[in-house]
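Quick board copy: two proteins, each given as sequence then C-alpha cells.
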Amino acid sequence: MKTPGEVLREGELEKRSDSLFQLWKKKRGVLTPDRLRLFPAGPGARPKELRFHSILKVDCVERTGKYIYFTIVTTDRKEIDFRCPGESCWNAAITLALIDFQNRRALEDFRSRQERAAPAAQPESRAARAS
C-alpha cells in the first residue's frame, strides 16, 4: 500500500501562468499518492499543492513536437494548463495516481457504508433466529 508521503515521481514540468501573457513557468513537480506539489524555480519559495480530492480529471492531452500539453480540471471547474517534455509522461503519471487515489477513496467509502449498515442488520438477524 502506498503511503501519502511516498514520492511516485519527481522532475520538471511547466505550468501556464494565469497572467495576461500566459507564459510557461518551469516548476519542479513532486507527485505523491494524494497530491501534486509544484515548487517554483526560485529558492526558498513555498510549493503550491494540488490535492487529489480537489481534482476531477486530467484532460485535453495533446502531443505537439517535443511537448505533451495537458489540463488538470479541479472540482470547482478551474482549468490548470501544463506541458512537459514528451518522454517524461507527467500526464500519464498524474492520471494513474489520480485513478489510484479515487479507487482507494471509493473503497474507503464502501467499507464505511458497510460498517454503518452492519449494526442495523444485526438486531434483525437476531429476531429472525429467535422465531
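And the next:
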Amino acid sequence: MAQAQATHNTITLKGSTKIVTEFFAYAVNSILYQRGIYPPDNFEQRKQYGLSIMVSTDTGLTDYLSTVLEQMSDWLVRGELQKMVLVITSSETKETLERWTFDLQTDKSVVDGRSAPEKSDKEITSEIQAIIRQITASVTFLPLLNDACTFDLLVYTDAASSVPTEWEDSDPRFIQNAADVKLRSFTTKVHKVDALVSYRADDD
C-alpha cells in the first residue's frame, strides 16, 4: 500500500506538463469571461478543480487556444517555456489595459531525468483552486473595462527554442502607470507558476 501511494504521488515531466497546460486553458477562459472580453452567452459552465469554471464555446477562440496550448505544451516538456502573458487591449485606442502574467520555473533536473519529485494531486489541485478563485474575484479590485477590448497571448521561451513560422514577434505591451496585484502560485515540483495581474492605475 505504501508503495502504491508513493507511485501515485510521483510527478513525471509529462504529467506536470499536462497539469500546467490544463491550468493555462482554464485560467485564460476564466479571465476572458470575468473581464467580459466575450459575451457571457459564449461560455458554458464546467466543473474542474472542485469549482465551476466558465469555458468558451466560441469555435474560433477554442481553436486558437488549442493551437497555442499545444505549442506551449511542447515547450513545457522540453523545459523551454518561461512565461505566458495574457494582454487585454482597448479595441479603440489600442492601449494595453491589463497584463495577466504567469511566470514559469522548471526543475531542469527533472527534464534531464535526474530526479522524480513527489507531491499529492490534492495539494496541487488546492493550489490551482486558490488562483482560479482569485481570478474569479478579480472583478472586485480591477477597474471596470469600459471600452470594447481584445486580447493577445504573449509567450516567452528560451532563446534557443524552435518557434513555428506562423508565430510573430511582439513588444512586451507594458502598461503606462501600472498597478500590480500578485496572485497565488502553484507548483507540481516540476513546474512552478507565479501569477500577477497588472492594470492601468487612475491618473489621479
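Board note added afterward: The mean pLDDT is 90.
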